[in-house]
Fold each of these.
Amino acid sequence: MGDEDTVTGFLLGGIGELNKNHHPNFLVVEKDTTINETEDTFRWFLNREDIGIILINQYIAERCSMRSMPTTLLEIPSKEHPNDAAKDPILRRARGMFMAHDLR
Amino acid sequence: MAARGPRAELDSLLLQLLGDLEELEAKRAALNSRVEEGWLSLSKARYAMGAKSVGPLQYASRMEPQVRVCTSEAQDGPQKFWMVRAGTQTPEEVGPREAVLRRRKGLTRTPEPDPSPAPQDPLNWFGILVPHSLRQAQASFREGLQLAADMASLQIRIDWGRSQLQGLQEKLKQLEPGAP
């Protein structure tokens, strides 16, 4: 799930699927794509048994409040929004582990 | 004395976790580089082919993935992911018998399973003769996919390690309730 260039690139890499029922395993998020549509597609991907990892631009994951999601969610940069390590959910959870009183 | 075992285990787990975090960040930096290279190559391809020639308008109406992600579920450990190209044999399917087949004994042929049709290369969506920059973009994103699988495995391992760490810390608190 990402901007046009990111999705086109990864589809070139060979992970795209569009079956006879026209059910894609990708979503190009454009300026007029609503948050509801993005969240609905994301939930649909989560429920599909044939999808193991979801690649998503970080700014889309942030916008749609999908942070508390399973670890098979991989946030990637987008052209207009580079990755911000401070916003990465894995690193934030890891940072929370190393509190002084827990390490005594 | 009773807490020495869990303490040593805690230290070991903490070191493993820190190593995994470091590895995850290194792979994240590598993935970001591959993706940025891919975008640049796509822009070059667009410059060569036309602004609207590389995008969703060219996506095929039927797509079969060339690459799939496989997963292993360990009973007592974290899940792992790895990428497999469609149509490749798993190591278990290739054995000593293959060496015999390669010796070409006469006209007899061992019946082979019907090969499934190879999925179409996505490069073909953009024409027959595509610029080199588009092939470079494909190569960059393919490398990115392998890194993505490694990162997903690391993320799961880090979360698993985190929950193990919390469990051990609770255990230690119970063994040493009076410790500061």
Amino acid sequence: MAKEIKLLGTWASPFSHRIELALKLKGLQFQYLEEDLSNKSQLLLQSNPVHKKIPVLIHNGNPISESLLIMEYIDETWQHQNPLLPKDPYGRAAARFWAKFIDEKVLWTAFKAYNDKGKEQEDAIEEFSQQLKFLEEELKGKEYFGGERFGFVDIASFFILQFLRVLQEVKEAELMTEEKYPVLFEWMEKLQGNEVVAGCLPPREKHVAYVRARRAAAEEAASKTKAA
Amino acid sequence: MADEVILLDKWVSPFGMRVRIALAEKGIKYEYRDEDLRNKGELLLKMNPVHKKIPVLIHNGKPVCESNIIVQYVDEVWHDKAPLLPSDPYLRAQARFWADFVDKKIYDTGRKLWTTKGDEQKSATEEFIGYLKTLEAELGDKPYYGGEKMNYVDVTMIPFYSWFHTYEASGNFSIESHCPKLMAWAKRCMQHESVSKTLPEPEKNYEFVLQMKKRLGIE
């Protein structure tokens, strides 16, 4: 039976990039469908009625949502090459922990650190710096978060941190620097040098322009709300 | 060599309750330690330096943090008894999706019910009922989210039953009137000793929240 795999994603989303990479690492053929989030397709709305978000993986007509869960599904369904998670329960728990930390803490704190103002921004900057220190400590002495080979946490965090570097460029800030986080930067360079990984990143200039435009629109909308 | 299992927890925490239920379902012996969260102990801070939160499971000296991650760990280590996740990858993905939904929606929105007033509370109440209805729809006519037996999703959600009275009293609404099937499911789960011995009395929970509100200066 032919396996049919579809990925609903968007070119700018780090969550989407994760799934592209996971599928490529497993050597899988898939159909990529670019979603317009301002005009969501029927397929997306039917496949993810609860959250209506990308990415969504559709495997033989069955939809799976939430990028980290999709990655686990891919890993469990196609076990033949490039395992993403370790086999031992403790290693798996640790991997899930760090991926969750990135998604639920680092990303949101970083948004505040780059976008907020005043005391809220100051607090977020401090928290973000502490979070990056935790990541730096976790990575120290290892080739990758996954050990000798990159895996679940590397995939989860790489695209998010690359996205944050784009945001950093747009905001002309210097919260993440090579001086402060040499281990993280060395690891990012290593992954950027990997053809398969780099192939999942959008062109830098295009990404910067896109994030710049979205930030401008968000700031304009926020000032209109204040004025109203 | 016997396993040494310690659980750092707080009796009222729905997150901690998930772990206690999972351990009880699997018949695992462990040492329970109720933590003082206003004066966090050295062991908690050492075992969960990133979040400094309970629950933390310490298995043979090694910490596992984040309740849903702990429950999956427990399920994988003690896989031969009362499996909480199905073996089929697609069904596992669905179970994880719903546990993730509970995690993302129920606690935070529920918290707004007893920390806000007026319009904010009203809209939080509507949002909360909406999430419960979504969960009720997913349950359908099944006795449990796991079908004939409780599974990962049941374990993730049932602790909030001990918080229902607190939510209802705060938001001045009846969960039963909106979600009768969900209430029936909760009572069904409560017939399991692993659940009934873990969940505190709803009144105790409400008293705790009232005390906390006083301390936090919330009316």
